[in-house]
Amino acid sequence: MASKWWQQSVFYQIYPRSFQDSNNDGIGDIKGITARLSYLEKLGIDAIWLSPVFASPNVDNGYDVSDYCAIMPEFGTMADMEELIAAAKKAGIKIIMDLVVNHTSSEHPWFKKALAGDPHYKDYYIFRSDKNGLPNDLNSFFGGCAWEHLPATNEYYFHLFAKEQPDLNWENPAVRKEVWKIMNFWLQKGVGGFRLDVIELIGKIPDQKIIGDGPALHPYLQEMYREVLAGHDVVTIGETGSVTPLTAPLYTDPKRKELSMVFQFQHMALDEVAKTSKWNLKSLNVSELKTVLSRWQTDLPKEAWNSLFWSNHDQPRILSRWGNVADYPTKSSKMLAILLHLMRGTPFIYQGEELGMTNQYVDKISQLDDIESIHYYEEEKAKGSSEATIWQAINTKGRDNARTPMQWSNVPNAGFTGENVTPWYNLNPNYTTINAQTRLDDPESIFYTYQKLIQLRKKYPLIVWGDYDLLDTAENIFAYTRSYEGETWLICANFSDSKQAVSLPYAATETIITNYPHTYHHLNQLNLLPYETFVVKLA
């Protein structure tokens, strides 16, 4: 089967503010990323998904854009960005821009002109008269009402996120043309594609309370393809929170000419009480995880495509979430890596995941930066929730967990910024032992497991194209096969901190990768150690 470059690739997400500070102002920047390209080359990744570096007042850490064709001064200049694109290309790495076009910043010139009464720009956003009171009871994803009142003009405007992030009116063809211009601007700079933030929301009809997957969504995406993407060998990754294996082909079947792949979040909701909020916690059930991940492997048609990820800038650190930081940090982080990277789809590594970085414990509101966590804290306090309950939720699921600075070495400030500089956000104190230098010096570290997994994907079409079958095992054993052109691999993991007996009716001819120093032959009587994971070629 003909393969696109992004199907064989492994992507690495960089959160620029927290990756590497080059000028000792405490904030990561573009020159810092360029300086670390050799590290990413060593890891072996093919593309960088770059969280937003556009001009922004930073209400939502760059996801509130005030100028799509300018660089946030804290991050550097357009010349720095052009240098990064060129240096990455020389290293064989593509730069993928994070395009936030469901909404802008309230500081964007379009919105300022709209507030000033310019009818052309007013139709770029969603305004409603206050004549009959609140338009409806829709809420923002960050808490509170999604309609912001403007008493001076007797109007409301609509915002699905912070009030400083007014939603664009995609029904207006002029808005769509502006987005096509922005995309072409960056394609001319040489980027390798776009990650499209909350793209399933652009077809919303707020008056009918239709938010995700509105009726015009797919026509808009097809128009985007026609007007911008046709003829470019680039990747488009759609963040689509409500997508299922049955609806994903609407986005990613090449015949429909929309997107390359989707980000879906069904597995990410498995430690939440169903249909409540991300903060309402429950323990992970491994059987549910197997079911959800396997459904994406078997129910998604071959011509459609999915992404594979455990962590990103909006998710807590996977080792803290579903691994075992206290007793088996290396074994459990390797288990999670092997399980995911041997599946069909394009893997995404979030910065520091390859080091085994963990969540950072906080217990004061002054320690929070994330607007979503701050809103949650304030709302729960107003409801009378206990501090213990609030902090347990924030420490488990808060977005700040992913945003602590990258841990490069054991010097003060972890090599992220100067030793006498105050970083923009607190470092995790465990940087003295969990850091890139320590991992690079240890041939058995998690870094080299990620490196090998990337190498395997490049070498074996089976990983990209093979059929997937989940094996029927005890709850805490996650075992599946991948088969392609007469060859079958078995991937087996003990997803628990206790020994597990498993009997599989196979014999192995080769051990491909494992997180224990074992080789595997007959598999019909195994006693797997905590988090023991192996990949073998079957006879």
Automatic annotation (TrEMBL):
<comment type="similarity">
    <text>Belongs to the glycosyl hydrolase 13 family.</text>
</comment>
<dbReference type="InterPro" id="IPR045857">
    <property type="entry name" value="O16G_dom_2"/>
</dbReference>
<dbReference type="InterPro" id="IPR017853">
    <property type="entry name" value="GH"/>
</dbReference>
<keyword id="KW-0378">Hydrolase</keyword>
<feature type="domain" description="Glycosyl hydrolase family 13 catalytic">
    <location>
        <begin position="13"/>
        <end position="403"/>
    </location>
</feature>
<dbReference type="Pfam" id="PF00128">
    <property type="entry name" value="Alpha-amylase"/>
</dbReference>
<dbReference type="InterPro" id="IPR013780">
    <property type="entry name" value="Glyco_hydro_b"/>
</dbReference>
<protein>
    <submittedName>
        <fullName>Alpha-glucosidase</fullName>
    </submittedName>
</protein>
<keyword id="KW-0326">Glycosidase</keyword>
<dbReference type="Pfam" id="PF23915">
    <property type="entry name" value="SusG_C"/>
</dbReference>
<dbReference type="InterPro" id="IPR056300">
    <property type="entry name" value="SusG-like_C"/>
</dbReference>
<dbReference type="InterPro" id="IPR006047">
    <property type="entry name" value="GH13_cat_dom"/>
</dbReference>
